Records
---
Amino acid sequence: MELSVGQLVGEVYAAAPPQERSRLLEFLLRPLGVLALVAIADGIFAKIRFRSGWPDPHVTLEDANRVQPSDIVALVERVQQASTDAVDGLASVVAASPLMASSAAAAVLVALLVQHQRKRRVQAATLADPDFDPPG
């Protein structure tokens, strides 16, 4: 069974300490508006966003502890629809934290995100130049 990006982020979130959970949540909340957040996980993320400030959210440790890994899966799936840049940035967020990057799920997640990013670059280059011959 192949895990989705959302499932992997959910596993990384579950294993992360509260401070890192807050940081990951702050990153994931940025690209989405309130309307999108209301529709995810019974509105838990919209409530956090309203309490945490705009435009740069600050997620408290208490809020981060209320969020379940299954909520993160749903949030990441919505972020994937809204912003490929945010999904690409997940690899940097996870890799920048030794506490998050040390899990097996994090290693698989970063590898998967890098692979997806390369695939999108090749597709973009091919669209821009039909004679483009991707390396490898």
---
Amino acid sequence: MSLIGKKAPEFKAKAVVKDKILDDFSLTDYSGKYVIFFFYPLDFTYVCPTELHAFQERLKDFEKRNAQVIGCSVDSWYSHLAWLNIAKNKGGIQGITYPIVSDLNKTISRSFQVLKEDEGVAYRGLFLIDRNEIIRHQLVNDLPLGRSVDEALRLLDALIFHEQNGEVCPANWKSGAKAMKPTEQGLAEFFR
């Protein structure tokens, strides 16, 4: 079942930001900003640190677009903190500065419909949430399939472009490319 067009599920949870544990973290704290909220299966795994570092490497690009990146897994806040203290070349996520939410009781991953019940971990879900807390894009990958940060940025750009211009973004649209008015005439002009 899709969450597109619905308000992002609300929650309060513990999260880790750099070396601090936050007790009452909530997505509503970022109302008025775009949010890239992504789930990953577990700390101390193999594909997961590559994704967390890939988002960190492009963090300034998200921030320029008034977007907050937030990660989430079913691990405890203590596990997140321990993983943050391990160097990248040792499989850790040292240097990650965006929030990482703890979904220890699995209610967040269940409410976002990404919980793999038989294993008790989250699939690789990614949600683009607009400034009004509405989910505008969702993508869910199976456990072994890492995500594209470039695609997350492209979709964020498309949403911002649409909001600013009222035009729609065709297949493979990138910032600066031709878009179209959402009409038959707009489509005809696009293909000319």
